[in-house]
Amino acid sequence: MKFFIDTANIDQIKEAQDLGILDGVTTNPSLMAKEGITGEENIKNHYIKICEIVDGDVSAEVISTDFEGIVKEGEALAKLHDQIVVKVPMIKEGIKAIKYFSEKGIRTNCTLVFSVGQALLAAKAGATYVSPFIGRLDDISTDGLNLIEEIRLVYDNYMFETQILAASIRHTMHIIDCAKIGADVMTGPLSSIEGLLKHPLTDSGLEKFLADYNKNN
Ligand code: E4P
Q1: Hey, which residues are catalytic here?
Q2: Quick one: which of 21, 33, 87, 100 is 20 to 30 A from 67 by CA?
Q3: Which residues line ligand 1 (CB under 6 A)?
Q4: HAMAP family from the entry (predicted)?
Q5: Could you give the CA distance from residue 95 to residue 206 in angstroms, rounded to a whole number?
Protein backbone atom coordinates (compact mmCIF):
# COMPACT_ATOMS: atom_id res chain seq x y z
CA MET A 1 0.00 0.00 0.00
CA LYS A 2 1.38 3.40 -0.99
CA PHE A 3 1.21 6.22 1.56
CA PHE A 4 0.55 9.73 0.26
CA ILE A 5 0.20 12.81 2.44
CA ASP A 6 -2.75 15.07 1.65
CA THR A 7 -1.40 18.57 2.21
CA ALA A 8 0.49 21.45 0.63
CA ASN A 9 2.21 22.24 3.94
CA ILE A 10 5.98 21.99 3.44
CA ASP A 11 6.82 21.27 7.10
CA GLN A 12 4.35 18.37 7.26
CA ILE A 13 5.55 16.99 3.92
CA LYS A 14 9.15 17.11 5.21
CA GLU A 15 8.13 15.43 8.46
CA ALA A 16 6.38 12.58 6.60
CA GLN A 17 9.30 12.25 4.18
CA ASP A 18 11.71 12.02 7.13
CA LEU A 19 9.73 9.05 8.47
CA GLY A 20 10.93 7.19 5.38
CA ILE A 21 7.55 5.73 4.45
CA LEU A 22 6.19 8.45 2.16
CA ASP A 23 5.32 7.51 -1.43
CA GLY A 24 3.81 10.76 -2.62
CA VAL A 25 1.72 13.88 -2.05
CA THR A 26 -1.76 14.96 -3.07
CA THR A 27 -2.83 18.58 -3.14
CA ASN A 28 -5.94 20.40 -4.27
CA PRO A 29 -6.84 24.09 -4.75
CA SER A 30 -8.28 24.30 -1.22
CA LEU A 31 -5.10 22.86 0.35
CA MET A 32 -2.95 25.32 -1.66
CA ALA A 33 -5.16 28.23 -0.56
CA LYS A 34 -4.91 27.05 3.07
CA GLU A 35 -1.12 27.52 2.86
CA GLY A 36 -1.58 30.99 1.31
CA ILE A 37 -0.16 29.86 -2.07
CA THR A 38 -1.86 31.98 -4.72
CA GLY A 39 -1.10 33.06 -8.29
CA GLU A 40 -0.12 30.76 -11.17
CA GLU A 41 3.65 31.16 -10.81
CA ASN A 42 3.67 30.70 -7.02
CA ILE A 43 1.49 27.62 -7.33
CA LYS A 44 3.78 26.09 -9.98
CA ASN A 45 6.88 26.86 -7.89
CA HIS A 46 5.23 25.26 -4.88
CA TYR A 47 4.65 22.04 -6.84
CA ILE A 48 8.31 22.00 -7.88
CA LYS A 49 9.35 22.55 -4.26
CA ILE A 50 7.20 19.60 -3.14
CA CYS A 51 8.66 17.38 -5.89
CA GLU A 52 12.15 18.21 -4.68
CA ILE A 53 11.31 17.08 -1.12
CA VAL A 54 9.60 13.75 -1.88
CA ASP A 55 10.65 10.84 -4.05
CA GLY A 56 7.19 9.86 -5.33
CA ASP A 57 4.18 11.14 -7.22
CA VAL A 58 2.79 14.63 -6.61
CA SER A 59 -0.79 15.31 -7.70
CA ALA A 60 -1.33 18.80 -9.10
CA GLU A 61 -4.93 19.73 -9.82
CA VAL A 62 -6.23 21.60 -12.88
CA ILE A 63 -8.84 24.28 -12.37
CA SER A 64 -10.24 24.32 -15.93
CA THR A 65 -13.48 22.48 -16.59
CA ASP A 66 -13.45 22.39 -20.41
CA PHE A 67 -11.45 19.83 -22.44
CA GLU A 68 -9.10 22.34 -24.11
CA GLY A 69 -8.43 24.15 -20.83
CA ILE A 70 -7.78 20.92 -18.89
CA VAL A 71 -5.39 19.68 -21.60
CA LYS A 72 -3.49 22.98 -21.76
CA GLU A 73 -3.17 23.22 -17.98
CA GLY A 74 -2.36 19.54 -17.53
CA GLU A 75 0.37 19.57 -20.16
CA ALA A 76 1.95 22.62 -18.51
CA LEU A 77 1.78 20.97 -15.06
CA ALA A 78 3.25 17.69 -16.35
CA LYS A 79 6.20 19.62 -17.82
CA LEU A 80 7.06 21.10 -14.41
CA HIS A 81 8.57 17.86 -13.05
CA ASP A 82 8.49 14.17 -13.95
CA GLN A 83 6.90 13.37 -10.56
CA ILE A 84 3.78 15.41 -11.37
CA VAL A 85 0.50 13.54 -11.80
CA VAL A 86 -2.25 15.69 -13.33
CA LYS A 87 -5.33 15.72 -11.11
CA VAL A 88 -8.52 15.98 -13.17
CA PRO A 89 -12.10 16.27 -11.87
CA MET A 90 -14.61 13.51 -12.58
CA ILE A 91 -16.70 15.38 -15.15
CA LYS A 92 -17.45 14.62 -18.82
CA GLU A 93 -14.71 16.94 -20.09
CA GLY A 94 -12.36 15.51 -17.49
CA ILE A 95 -12.88 11.95 -18.74
CA LYS A 96 -12.12 13.08 -22.30
CA ALA A 97 -8.97 14.76 -21.05
CA ILE A 98 -7.88 11.69 -19.03
CA LYS A 99 -8.22 9.58 -22.19
CA TYR A 100 -6.15 12.17 -24.10
CA PHE A 101 -3.47 12.27 -21.37
CA SER A 102 -3.25 8.47 -21.14
CA GLU A 103 -2.60 8.27 -24.88
CA LYS A 104 0.14 10.89 -24.49
CA GLY A 105 1.75 9.06 -21.55
CA ILE A 106 0.80 11.78 -19.05
CA ARG A 107 -0.20 10.28 -15.70
CA THR A 108 -3.52 11.31 -14.14
CA ASN A 109 -5.44 11.20 -10.89
CA CYS A 110 -9.21 11.32 -11.39
CA THR A 111 -10.53 13.24 -8.40
CA LEU A 112 -13.91 13.87 -6.74
CA VAL A 113 -15.10 10.30 -7.26
CA PHE A 114 -18.15 9.28 -5.24
CA SER A 115 -19.59 6.24 -7.06
CA VAL A 116 -18.48 2.94 -8.55
CA GLY A 117 -19.83 4.05 -11.95
CA GLN A 118 -17.55 7.08 -11.91
CA ALA A 119 -14.60 4.88 -10.96
CA LEU A 120 -15.41 2.50 -13.84
CA LEU A 121 -15.37 5.40 -16.31
CA ALA A 122 -12.06 6.71 -14.93
CA ALA A 123 -10.47 3.28 -15.42
CA LYS A 124 -11.89 2.96 -18.94
CA ALA A 125 -10.37 6.34 -19.79
CA GLY A 126 -6.99 5.13 -18.54
CA ALA A 127 -6.55 7.10 -15.31
CA THR A 128 -3.40 6.20 -13.39
CA TYR A 129 -5.19 6.80 -10.07
CA VAL A 130 -8.84 7.12 -9.09
CA SER A 131 -9.63 9.08 -5.93
CA PRO A 132 -12.82 8.05 -4.09
CA PHE A 133 -13.43 10.54 -1.25
CA ILE A 134 -14.40 8.34 1.68
CA GLY A 135 -14.54 10.97 4.44
CA ARG A 136 -16.90 13.19 2.48
CA LEU A 137 -19.23 10.21 1.92
CA ASP A 138 -19.13 9.37 5.64
CA ASP A 139 -20.02 13.04 6.30
CA ILE A 140 -23.34 12.55 4.51
CA SER A 141 -24.16 9.24 6.24
CA THR A 142 -23.00 7.09 3.31
CA ASP A 143 -20.46 4.29 3.79
CA GLY A 144 -17.23 5.54 2.21
CA LEU A 145 -15.38 2.27 2.81
CA ASN A 146 -18.11 0.35 1.01
CA LEU A 147 -17.30 2.39 -2.10
CA ILE A 148 -13.64 1.32 -1.88
CA GLU A 149 -14.78 -2.32 -1.63
CA GLU A 150 -17.05 -2.01 -4.66
CA ILE A 151 -14.37 -0.35 -6.79
CA ARG A 152 -11.84 -3.06 -5.75
CA LEU A 153 -14.31 -5.76 -6.89
CA VAL A 154 -14.99 -4.12 -10.25
CA TYR A 155 -11.34 -3.35 -10.99
CA ASP A 156 -10.32 -6.90 -10.08
CA ASN A 157 -13.09 -8.36 -12.27
CA TYR A 158 -11.54 -6.73 -15.32
CA MET A 159 -7.93 -6.39 -14.17
CA PHE A 160 -7.98 -2.61 -14.61
CA GLU A 161 -4.57 -1.15 -13.86
CA THR A 162 -5.95 2.11 -12.44
CA GLN A 163 -4.82 2.37 -8.81
CA ILE A 164 -7.43 2.99 -6.12
CA LEU A 165 -6.28 6.02 -4.14
CA ALA A 166 -8.45 6.23 -1.04
CA ALA A 167 -8.83 9.98 -0.45
CA SER A 168 -10.51 12.21 2.09
CA ILE A 169 -9.07 10.00 4.82
CA ARG A 170 -9.96 11.55 8.16
CA HIS A 171 -8.38 9.25 10.74
CA THR A 172 -6.15 6.25 11.36
CA MET A 173 -8.93 3.62 11.24
CA HIS A 174 -9.72 4.72 7.68
CA ILE A 175 -6.16 3.76 6.71
CA ILE A 176 -6.37 0.36 8.41
CA ASP A 177 -9.76 -0.41 6.88
CA CYS A 178 -8.55 0.64 3.42
CA ALA A 179 -5.53 -1.63 3.80
CA LYS A 180 -7.81 -4.57 4.69
CA ILE A 181 -9.93 -3.93 1.61
CA GLY A 182 -6.89 -3.65 -0.64
CA ALA A 183 -6.83 0.02 -1.66
CA ASP A 184 -3.60 0.55 -3.59
CA VAL A 185 -2.90 3.96 -2.06
CA MET A 186 -4.19 6.10 0.75
CA THR A 187 -3.83 9.85 1.10
CA GLY A 188 -4.41 11.43 4.46
CA PRO A 189 -3.25 14.09 6.91
CA LEU A 190 0.00 13.56 8.85
CA SER A 191 -2.03 12.95 12.05
CA SER A 192 -3.77 9.92 10.49
CA ILE A 193 -0.40 8.40 9.53
CA GLU A 194 1.16 9.10 12.93
CA GLY A 195 -1.86 7.47 14.60
CA LEU A 196 -0.60 4.14 13.25
CA LEU A 197 2.39 4.43 15.58
CA LYS A 198 0.42 4.60 18.77
CA HIS A 199 -0.25 1.86 21.30
CA PRO A 200 -0.29 2.31 25.10
CA LEU A 201 1.36 -1.12 25.60
CA THR A 202 4.28 0.02 23.43
CA ASP A 203 4.69 3.12 25.60
CA SER A 204 4.42 1.30 28.93
CA GLY A 205 6.60 -1.58 27.69
CA LEU A 206 9.34 0.77 26.56
CA GLU A 207 9.15 2.72 29.81
CA LYS A 208 9.70 -0.53 31.77
CA PHE A 209 12.57 -1.72 29.54
CA LEU A 210 14.36 1.61 29.96
CA ALA A 211 13.72 1.69 33.73
CA ASP A 212 15.12 -1.86 34.13
CA TYR A 213 18.17 -0.98 32.02
CA ASN A 214 18.84 2.18 34.02
CA LYS A 215 18.51 0.32 37.37
CA ASN A 216 21.33 -2.04 36.35
CA ASN A 217 23.65 0.20 34.37
C1 E4P B 1 -7.75 14.13 -2.43
O2 E4P B 1 -6.78 14.08 -3.17
C3 E4P B 1 -8.20 15.35 -1.76
O4 E4P B 1 -7.16 16.29 -1.71
C5 E4P B 1 -8.59 15.13 -0.32
O6 E4P B 1 -8.32 13.83 0.12
C7 E4P B 1 -9.87 15.74 0.08
O8 E4P B 1 -10.08 15.47 1.44
P9 E4P B 1 -11.10 16.30 2.36
O10 E4P B 1 -12.44 15.72 2.19
O11 E4P B 1 -10.56 16.08 3.74
O12 E4P B 1 -11.01 17.74 1.91
Answers
A1: 87
A2: 33
A3: 6, 26, 28, 111, 131, 133, 135-136, 167-168, 187
A4: Transaldolase_3b
A5: 52
